[in-house]
Design goal:
39% of the residues lie in helices and 15% in strands. It has 289 residues and is an alpha/beta fold. Strands 1-2-4-5-6-7-8-9 form an 8-stranded parallel barrel, surrounded by 6 helices. β4, α6 (152-161) and β5 form a beta-alpha-beta unit.
Length: 289
Amino acid sequence: MKHKILIVLFLVLECCKAQSISSFQYSRANLLDPSPAVILVAAHRGMHRDYPENSIPAIQDAIDHHVDIVEIDVQITKDGIPILMHDEEIDRTTTGRGEVRKLTYAEICEFKLKDKAGKETALTVPSLAEVLELSKDKIILDLDLKLKKRHLRKVTRLIEELKAENSVFFYESRHAVIKKIQRQLPGALRMTKVSLNRRAVKRAMLKANPEIVHLGNSERDRDPVFIKYLQNYYKKPVFANALGALDLEVEKNPDTLNYFITKGINVIQTDKPELVLNYLVARGKHDQF
């Protein structure tokens, strides 16, 4: 009897231990050591259904929903401040006008962010420093770099100063920049795009050796044999977009997401993160938090 009680206690403790892992720890563990049993979700420019893209509330909403990754776009202002902005100009997403590189951060902050419908909000463009402070050890940030190579140090130094290395990875198609990130911030995760060309993949691995690979959007690039090759030969997690037509189909029919499951994708980037996450949880492809 005493022996049985000890076994039960052991199982209870193991269960509690398993459930004590945070969503951030879960996301990072499955990014570093991917498994076909788990698919992670990346929110494209944050949760921008209810909030402006690349805004603090859009990122906080992703944290609150236990989304694994938030993709954000990073640019540098005239006075050298890394900020969140997708376009080269602020015209589409704010009430202001002009190019990011020709405006100071203070000037950009005079304007308000607009929502998806183009309506003015009370929000302003966040700096990368604000976002790192908000997100550190809570969610993984996918930094889509939209800056010149000479400005990279401004970003890597900021991450280093805020001790946020574990909470970011960099997306960059230029192999020279990927290598420079490695020199400036050793140990930081990096991602680059690859297509179905084994010679080009080999060159990318030799020149950049990224920790994560981003597939192209064509069906050719998403060949399951090619995906297995990247996962088994290079031991890399595979990241793919649902953006555009697939996201629209997912909204009508969530079973469209089986496309990613059958192909063996490790990370899905989407504009419908809540819907995608709920589907994966229901299919046993992601833990519930």
